[in-house]
Structures are given as structure tokens and as C-alpha cells.
Amino acid sequence: MKWSLKIARVAGIDIQIHATFLLILGWVAFSYYLVGRSLNAVAVGVGFLLALFLCVVLHELGHALAARRFGIQTKDITLLPIGGVARLERMPEKPMQELWVALAGPLVNVVISAVLFIGLLLTGTLQPIGSLSMTGGPFLERLMVVNLFLAGFNLIPAFPMDGGRVVRALLATRLPYTQATQAAATLGQALAFVFGFIGLFTNPFLVFIAFFVYIGAAQEASMVQMKSALSGIPVSQAMVTDFRTLQEGEPLSRAIELLMSSTQQDFPVLSGDRVVGILTRKSLVDALQRLGQNAPVSAAMDCKFESAHINDMLEEVSRKLQERECHTLPVVADGQLVGLVTMENIGEFLMIRSALEKRAAAAR
């Protein structure tokens, strides 16, 4: 994720912190200073926030390690002001696997709360919860309560929270995956309207949560529908076969000519008939500023690229495109370049296919 800094690596998973996290760090420090008017109060506030986000990391590691048991790796975990995000390579395909992966995160928070509760009980330092506040009360007891809140909040049955995935997993044991997703998304959007309505008269923060839930549910439903539509379709049906290429020894001025004379933005770079790189529009512009138009294409091309085989399915190709900064994949057959595929091509293919299906349905 852009604007993220790696701060640790745990169990083979990179832990990153997003630059916007510093905003909430500053806000908490300022809030505690207003209450305590001392650097000690600021240190307590910042320390509590860091402890809270350590619990968030453990929550996300719960998801990641549960997914690993089912053969699914996690690329990284990123800390954001609104929480953490574990980027799994893919979602579990079996409903019960998704159920366990979704529940693993909240279960970590429950375990943390239970350990803290037992510790407070044994030391005789447990106080009535009513005496706690965001800035006041025993450090560990507040952390216990917040972990219970995190578990409960994440189990709200709405995407993108874990509860939405729990609902989908349970529904998917009885319904097709796409229908289960749509039902879970509809439930989530209904809850979003409820949160938004209540928030208008009580806490405006609920309106923000409602917006977050509504958008998350819509995105999840759209993503699964697209995945279903692409399933079982070879890339050869959607790839572009009319395209331009560059030889690695050609000057960048040739790339300028091709860019200005067509709508193509990324160009495969060949060495003879073999693809050796991709020259993107961004890389071209950067190279022109650094090297000038007489520099060879090989000096600006991206040598680390992925390609697709002509028999690959569009679902897998779409996943590759979304994960790479390069928006074009070369398609090869028997080692020869036979086409290009972009997300725009895939979108156009789906649009045309949908129109033809509607036409066929209307003619019945």
C-alpha cells in the first residue's frame, strides 16, 4: 500500500504503518495534553494508543495465521487510523475455511480481554467499568474493555467487518457463493441505513460508520460478482491482438511516437521475438526527464513483470493486474507474444457479454 512504512516482520509477514496513522497519533497526544496538561499525560495517551494498535496487529495476525493453515499466504498487514488490514493472497473458497479465518481475529481480542481480566482479578485491581473513560481509569482495564469492543464491532454482520464474512460463510453452506455474498451485502447495507439514521440524532460518528459499511458491502458484492463472471473464461477471449511493441535497443523517441499515435499506454519490449520487459507510460515520462529521448528503451523498461499464458483464466489474470502497478500483462503462447490484456479490456469484455446475455434473455 502506498505511503506505508515497514516497521517489523512477524511470522514471515511484513507489518507496515500508513503515513495517516501519524494523524491519529498526534490527535491522541493533543487530546491527552488538554486533559492532563503535562508530558506525562501525553506519554500515557500515546502509550495506550500503541498498546491498542499492538492488539490490532495481533487481531490481523489471527486472520493471517488461520488463513495459512488453509494454504493461503498473507502479503502484509498495514496499520491505518481506522484499524488494520491483512492482505491475503486470496479468500478461502470453502465456506467453513472462510468462517474460521473471519472468526480468528475477534477471537484473539477475546483472548486478550480474558487474560487481562484474569490478571486484574488476581491482583485485586479490577474496578467498576462505569468508572472508566477514554482518558481515565487503569491502563490495563481500559485495554481489556477496548479489546471487547473491537471483538464486538468486528462481528457486526456487515462487510467489510469480519461479521459480514461470517454471515456469508454460513449462508454459503446453503446457497451459491455469489448469492450468499449478495445476501450478506444487502444485510450490511440495511444496517448501514440504521446506523446512519441513529447517528443523525445521536453520534455523528455513526454516520461515518454507516458510510464505511455501505461502501464496503457494495464493493464486496461487486468484486464477487466480477469474480464469478470471469470464472472459466480463457484470457484469449478478452485480450487485445492489435498492439504495438518496442525493441529493447530502440530509442525512447520511438516510444513517444507510438504513445502519441495510439491509445496504448504500456508497451511490451522485445529482444527478437522474446518479451524482456514492459515500458509503461509513467516509466517513459520519468526516463525522458532523467535520460532524454535518445536513451534506449532498455534503460527505462520494467524487467520485473508478470505475463499470462493464452490458456490462463480471466479470473487469475484479473487478480494479477490488480496486484501489479503495471496495468498491462503480455499474453504468450509457445514463448511468443500473442496479445495484451488490461483491466479496461476485461471491463469491456464483461460489458459486451452482459449486453448479449440480456439480448438473448429478452428473445426467449
From TrEMBL:
Pfam families, per the entry:
CBS, Peptidase_M50
Classify the protein's membrane topology as the record does: Multi-pass membrane protein
Q: Which GO terms describe its molecular function?
A: metal ion binding; metallopeptidase activity
The alphabetical list of record keywords is: CBS domain, Cell membrane, Hydrolase, Membrane, Metal-binding, Metalloprotease, Protease, Repeat, Transmembrane, Transmembrane helix, Zinc
Checking CDD domains in the record gives: S2P-M50_SpoIVFB_CBS
Q: Which GO terms describe its cellular component?
A: plasma membrane
Protein family (similarity comment):
Belongs to the peptidase M50B family.
This chain belongs to the protein called Zinc metalloprotease
Supply the source organism for this entry.
Answer: Bellilinea caldifistulae
Lineage, broadest ranks:
Bacteria, Bacillati, Chloroflexota, Anaerolineae, Anaerolineales
